[in-house]
Each structure stands twice: as C-alpha cells, then as structure tokens.
Amino acid sequence: MIDTLFSISKAPQWPDELERLAALPRRAPFDPRALAFVGEVSARLLQSAVGRDFPELAALAHWFRPASLQRMKTDQLAAAGAQSLRPRGSVFIIAPANVDVLFIYGWMLSLLAGNATAARVSQKPSAARDAFLGLVHQLAGAHGEVLEDSLLISYPHDETVTARLSSWCDLRLIWGGDATVNAIRSIALKPTAIEGAFADRFSMAAFDSKSIAEAEDARLAELARRFANDTMWFGQQACSSPRIVFWIGSGEEVEAAQARFWPLFARAAERFEDEPAAMMARVTDLFTMAAEGVIDRAETDYARLPARARGAGPSGAVRSLHSGFGLFVEYRLERLDELLPFLDDKDQTLVVHGIRDDALADLLERLPNRALDRVVPIGQATDFAISWDGINLLDLLTRRISLPRAAAVGR
Amino acid sequence: MTDAAAALEQRPFSVPSARKAVELLDGLNALSRHHEQGSEPYRRMVEAMFPAGRPARSLDEVPWLPVQIFKRLELASVPRDRIVRTLTSSGTSGQLPSRILLDRETANAQTKALVRIAGEFLGKARRPMVIVDDNSFLQDRSRFNARAAGILGFSTLGRDHFYLLDAALRPDWEALRAYLDRQGDTPMLLFGFTFIVWQHFVEAAKADGVSIRFPAGSALVHGGGWKRLEERRVSEAAFKAALAETFGIERVHNYYGMVEQVGSIYFECEQGWLHAPAYSDILIRDPKTLEPLPYGETGLVQVLSLLPHSYPGHSLLTEDLGTVYGEDDCPCGRLGRYFKVHGRLKNVEMRGCSDTRATPAP
C-alpha cells in the first residue's frame, strides 16, 4: 500500500508516477522558479502559526531563507568553476522514522538542484510533518511547475517498492540507523546510480575547563542553555548530540568548570520533558557501562538531568551502550590531543568551547581513519548542514559536466 | 543461603515488622557481599553506582539493579558449571529477553517459597489442577521462558494436571468435562495468565455457549499483568464476576511476580492487596528522583528477596508502578507489607537519527 502524501497528479497511480517524473525535463540547478517556491515556503513558515507551533520547522525556514539560498547557489556555481552544473537526475530519498523534518531538508535541496524527487516519509504520525504537507498543498496551485516532478510517499516496509524506487533513481539518499542502511544497501541500484548513506553516528564535546570556569555568569548560563539544546532537543538521540564530554585542563580547573557548568545545564534542561521510562533507560545504560568497565563512578543523583558518570578510559563500547536521554560520560584530559585514542570511525560531531585554533588544527591533522566530520561551537550541534557526514549534499544532488573550452556554457 | 533457608522455615506471613526488618537487612547485606565476591560485573556496578559504601543500614540503602539489566548482561555469582537452568522472559518484539541463571539451590528455594506462600492462600492440600494454557513447552526443558517457568512453578501446587488449551490456545471443553467428572466434588485449583484466562477461558466459553460449573471452593490463581485487559476496559471486579458467573469459581487470586527475581511471588489476599512474605519485601521509589516514598504514594516498585543466590537479583528496581499501603495491619491478618501494582511505565519513544532499534527496515 503506497500512500501518496503529495503529487501534482489528480489520481496518482503507482508505479506510473515514477515514469511520469522520469519523462519530465530537468530544471537547471537553482532555477528561479525553484528558488521562488523554497523562498515562499520559508516565508510562510516564519509568518504563520506553523513556525511558532513547531520550532523545528521554524529552524528549517530559517535555514532555507532567501539569503541562504543565494549563498548556496553562489558557492555551488563557484565550485563547479568552468564546468556546467546540472541536476543529478532522479533522486530517491529515505528519511528516518524519528526526525520528522529531515525529509524536508533532503527534498527541498533535491528540488533546488533540479532533480525529479521521490521521498519516502516515515509512517509514524507527525504533527509537524502534517503541518508542512498542508502548506505544500496550499502552494501547489501557484508553484505547479516546480512541484510537478516531486513525489512524497509513505509505505510500510516493503522490499519490492524500495527495489522499484532504487532501480528508478540516479541517486539514493538514506538517512537511518545502521540496520536500515544495511537493509537498503542490499537492494540493488541501477548500475549508473550513486548513493549517499547516513547511518548511526556518535558525537562528543571538548571544553577548555579554564574558559568555562572563568566565563561570566550570564555568558556561562547562555552556553549551558545552548548545550542543553544540543543534547536534549531530540532526547540526546540525534547523531550529532554529544554524549561524551572531554574536559581539558588540570584537575582543579576541571572540577571548578564542572561545578559551575552542570548546575546551569540542569536548570536549562528543566524545560525538556524527562519521562520516568527515559530515566530508567539512562539508569540501565549507566549500570551496563559500569558492568562493562566503561565508567567507574557515577554521580549519584542520576535520576535527575543530567546523569553524569566518570569514564574509565578509551572504550569503543560506550557508543553502543549509550542510548541518550540526558546521560554524559565525562573524561578529564590534560591536553586536547589526548582525546585521539578515544576517536573512531563512528564519530561525527565534536562540539567545542574555548579550544585554541592551533590545538584544534593539530588534532585534525592527526585524526584516525575517517573519525569526525564536524567541529562546531556550543549550540550548533543539531543544526542542519549542507555538508553531512563530510559529504556536500549538493555535490551529490548535482553533476558537473566538463566542457571542451573554458567558456561557461548553459550558465 | 542460610538466611534464606532460615527465612523459608518460618511461616511466610507471621513475622512482625520489627524482626523482619532486621533479619531481611542482614540477609540482603550478606547476599550483596556474596554477589560482589561471585560476580565481577556486579561488583563494578555497585562500586560505580553506589559509592557511599556498604553494608546498607536500612532496606532502602541496599544496592539495587535495574530489572532491564538482565536483558543486557548474563550475570552469575556462582561458577557456570553450577547453573542448571536458564529462565528467559518473554520480552517484547525486537528486544532481547532477560536471562536468569539458576543453580540447584536457588531453583529449589524458589519452589519451596512458592509452595509455602501459596499454602497460606489456598490451603496445604494439593488439589486437582487445571492449567489454562497448553503444554507444548514441556518438550524443551533446557530453556524456560517466563510463561513456561510460571506454569511449571505453579504446577507443583496441584496434582493430576489437566492442560485445557491446545497449541493454538483453543480450549478442549469435552476433555475438561471428562476431567471434572473424574475428580468429583474435590475443589480444584486453576492457574493461568490473566489475559489468556480472559480470552481463552472466559470469553471462549461465552462464544462457544459452554456452561461448566467447577466444584464449590475451587480457586483460580492468575498473574502476568492487567495491561491487555485494561485496553479492553475489563476491571478486576468484572474479571472476578465473569469467573463466578461462567464457571462458578468464587475464589480468584491475582499474583505479582517476575522472572527476574525468583521467589518474589506476591499473592492477592481476600481484601484485594498483594502481600510480601517474610523473606521478601517491597519498596516504592519516586519515579523522578528514585528517593524512597512513604506508604500511600505511588512510584516505581523495588523488590527485595533473600532467595537469589546464583545471580545478583536480590534487589531489583522494576519499571512497574505500585503503592504500598501499610505493614502488618491488613484486615486479612497476614503480617508484612501489602500493596498494589498499577501497571508498567509506558515505553520511552526512541527519537533521533537512529530509528531502527525496534524496527529494522525495509
């Protein structure tokens, strides 16, 4: 059963819709009509009650504001240089069940890039998604030309449908857990297609203790508030939400920083709901980590947010044993580069505060294999970024055609 | 095991609170020491999570484990070659089951405790027993799930067992009639899981138009939780009324227990309260702070038991919500704390990018 959440067709038929989409001409990347549509979505979300009711949609609207679209366009065209920038072709997007709005980022970027796009949306009910789809339907009349090659669908786990879409697309984008990514990876793409897969990742923070300990009260309260957003917004389950905190400095500096920072964090975290089942989940995680030797000491008020525990040294197990809900494994390090042994390929975002540029540069220089894709200041961990897991999404969503001479063609 | 053995020699509901608190605390402290010596993962958990030190000075200071830990870890406090039985919980889909490792001593203590407790509610005589379930689990005794362990445990309370249901959970009414004829007027013992009793016994009889009367004095023992009956808006009173009306069964005892803590079987008395026996107790903790709560307040149920010797399960924090109403003063006359269990915490929603913990795709 395929549920069509949006199609320009009056009576969409499966799988005819895919052929209809494929047969349409492709628009150039950043076609003015696409920019106008995305710009209007952004404006409407910011002006209407929808943006107030769903902060994640307000953040999305801000991210897609016209100035930001112009910058995206300029950057992308500059990167193409003398080559001609064209859409990838047909794009199949699979969004995760639990981050309602991720499919919107993927879909609107694909639309801006000029692709025919089929996005599979989770079957889980979502008020934010419904509000967004309502807006798209309202705009369909005025923006039919841009929306005619988009298809937003939902269907229960069904390998034949996923296989049909996979043999149709030129790019498959998957956001999901490791099991989802592995299951979908086993479904063949057409030979010329490419894939961007964004699986489970792990994130951490590194704070210079002296900077925290010496920060002004108001400044520190703001940092704590932002770090609560970084970690508690999705119940600490976004891939980019830090779960480990490295405190850089001497024993005294670290103690002073922790003593100031965590009470402010606790106050900031009060506005996030903490269900008893979530508390039991993090408590069970703490016990399991203790049994496995990942932590050797927990702060005993672990029923309250934040639950904190002292890490017992580098351990890969922390990544699989930690399921979020406001739990922080903390390590004290004398120097930033001491965190190198802790890193592995799963690690995505490092949230930093007070870290000197040269120390950071030295760390990045010595990163193991493919560890870390982002280093961001406090407050930006869960921001959407065009560069995802180290891959520029617009590079995936477009192609560059090399030309026989330096003159730009089709600009 | 001496503490448990001594406790098991007492009548389960005859130890006044002052004596029970001392004996239980001594026994639990001894068990904590035993498990710390026998299980390295247990020692690490206690040291990291309860750094204040031991021994506990009161029951609420006894270190506890979250009950879900047995879904994550296989914990044993005796050498593995002493383990004679592994209990597993049924577990919801997508989750690993709990694994509870029993040596002979612990398994025997559990059986003995159940017999002694049940005797206080059902009388000492072993009665003909109808089990409202099927017996296919008997084929493989090496690994027990919670359902099989429950049936097998309770079946020691009766004799001449009759299994009412087939593997598809269809009742064989004709065979039941023949069994009842054979047993004459002797009051019977019936056992089953609450939801199975409701759907495959009470409702099935109504659907099949069956009218069967059990001998006067027959008693039903049932447990496993009200969740699915609550979804169908069946109250405890309606459940009892239906059993009286449909089968003439006037005595119905709910019980509360879990595979993770052997011996923690709490029977419902004539007043409708669950009762903690001499070798076991109940604490209620605030679901926001985990601080112990006074009588009358609802929170997370912590169960304490002197029986778990082969694995560190003597003090467990469950995810069930309950209320202790008092101690030693239940009108039914049984000593010890009496309480009610209201259900389980609702599952926490998994969010974030990692969407697949429960449901693999595509």
What does this structure look like?
The complex is a heterodimer of chains A (411) and B (362). Helix content of chain A is 43%, strand content 20%. Chain A is of the alpha/beta class. With 362 residues, chain B is α/β, with parallel strands linked by helices. Chain B is built from ten helices and 15 strands. The radius of gyration of chain B is 21 Å and the shape is globular. At the A-B interface, helix 10, helix 14 and strand 10 of A face helix 3 and strand 1 of B.
Helices and strands, with pairings:
The complex is a heterodimer of chains A (411) and B (362).
Chain A (H helix, E strand, L loop, with lengths): L2 E4 L9 H8 L8 H16 L1 H5 L1 H9 L2 H15 L3 E4 L2 E5 L7 H11 L3 E5 L6 H13 L4 H4 L2 E5 L4 H10 L2 E5 L2 H8 L8 E5 L3 E7 H6 L2 H16 L9 E7 L2 H19 L6 H16 L3 E4 L8 E5 L5 H5 L5 E7 L13 E7 L3 H9 L8 E4 L9 E2 L2 E2 H5 E4 L10
Parallel strand pairs in A: 3-4, 3-6, 4-5, 6-7, 8-9, 8-13, 9-12, 11-12, 13-14
Antiparallel strand pairs in A: 1-5, 2-17, 10-11, 15-16
Helix pairs in contact in A: 2-4, 2-7, 12-13
Chain B lengths: L1 H8 L7 H22 L1 H10 L15 E2 L2 H4 L10 E6 L10 E5 H19 L4 E5 L11 E3 H10 L2 E6 L9 H11 L5 E5 H15 L10 E5 L3 H5 L4 H12 L3 E7 L7 E3 L6 E2 L4 E6 L12 E8 L9 E13 L9 E8 L18
Parallel strand pairs in B: 1-14, 2-5, 4-6, 4-7, 7-8, 8-9
Antiparallel strand pairs in B: 2-3, 9-10, 11-15, 12-13, 13-14, 14-15
Helix pairs in contact in B: 2-3, 8-10
What keywords describe this structure?
heterodimer, A: 411 residues, seven-stranded mixed β-sheet, 17 helices, globular, B: 362 residues, alpha/beta, six-stranded mixed β-sheet, 10 helices, 15 strands, 32% helix
